[in-house]
Specification:
Blueprint: H1 2-12, E1 32-42, E2 45-54, E3 60-71, H2 73-90, E4 96-100, H3 103-110
């Protein structure tokens, strides 16, 4: 099986892909930071969300995850934000900087004319 996986990875490297980018974590300006994500296996498909909360020093405070059944990836992204914020607020954190990799989810939250 390991040989099959290595062959798959080798074959995958022959496709045109963007080069990897370096990423880093941005600490919250004050309070805590929520990093959330959502995904679906198919669009729509079985969907999941998750997130983690860290303090300004980067220390892990807690993590969340869950399933939402049949949904698209946008709903999964939004649920990751919603559930992360809900748990953060329940634990007494009032200032939460949110980070999400979905531009569409961010736009839906930030616009005033929905």
């Amino acid at each position: 099986m390991a040989v099959d996986i290595l062959q798959f990875l080798n074959d995958a490297g022959t496709t045109t892909a963007a080069p990897p980018r370096l990423v880093s974590w941005i600490p919250p300006s004050e309070g805590v930071a929520l990093n959330s994500d959502g995904s679906s296996f198919g669009n729509p498909g079985n969907a999941w969300f998750g997130g983690l909360l860290r303090d300004a020093d980067g220390a892990w405070l807690f993590g969340i995850f869950g399933t939402i059944g049949l949904a698209d990836c946008l709903l999964a992204e939004l649920m990751g934000l919603r559930m992360g914020l809900q748990v953060a607020w329940e634990k007494g954190f009032q200032r939460v900087d949110c980070f999400c990799d979905s531009n569409t989810a961010i736009h839906l939250i930030m616009v005033d004319d929905i």
